[in-house]
Amino acid sequence: MRIPFGMIVLVGAVAVAGCSQKGLRDIRKTGTGPDEFLVLPNKPLNEPADYSSLPEPTPGAGNIADPTPQADAVAALGGKPSALVPGQGVSSSDLALVSASSRYGVSPTVRQELAEEDAKFLKKKRITGRIRLFPVDRYEQIYAKQTLDPFETTEQFRRAGVATPSAPPPSGE
């Protein structure tokens, strides 16, 4: 009995499609390991110029080599980490902005609520289309309706009279 050539090609295509690498666009959790975004590296240890100028050690207090991500981010963006309000993490020059943006209230559980809503959204979207013959970008498919077209958005702002920076043309033009 002879197997048709088309059947061999189809089986080969399905087999090769299963060997693709999804990379960072795979939005499913791959294991039970640690979250790499929660790991903060320590600052490098430096020898002080004068040991007599060091403060007295205090049990449980901070260390100059401890990570300070908020202050480091402020410094990286050109701000002054010394202007941070103790306990709030907001610079004194930005207090007006923070109060204006939180005038309708701030939910302390906003991250948890968004994570739960996104999990429900993903579960609903995954029900349709579990079987694929060829590798597809599931991230693009799932979040396609929530994606902004940057060129269309720029044109909307320009038509409204808002000054916008120049941008490269869309690819293909």
Task: Explain the layout of strands and helices.
Layout: H1 5-17, H2 69-76, H3 95-101, H4 110-127, H5 138-142, H6 150-159
Q: How do you describe this structure in short?
A:
35% of the residues lie in helices and 0% in strands.
Q: What proportion strand?
A: under 5%
Write down the overall geometry. extended
Average pLDDT: 76
Order of helices and strands: HHHHHH
Distance between the termini: 53 Å
Category by helix and strand content? mainly alpha
Tell me which oligomeric state these chains represent: single chain
Number of helices: 6
Task: List key phrases describing it.
173 residues, mainly alpha, DUF3035, DUF3035 domain-containing protein
Describe the structure.
The structure is a single chain. The chain is mostly helical. It has a domain at 136-161. It has helices at residues 5-17, 69-76, 95-101, 110-127, 138-142, 150-159. The longest helix is centred in the last third of the chain and has 18 residues, at 110-127. The N and C termini lie far apart (53 Å). Residues 48-69 are annotated as: Disordered. InterPro entries: DUF3035 (IPR021395). This is DUF3035 domain-containing protein. It comes from Phaeobacter gallaeciensis.
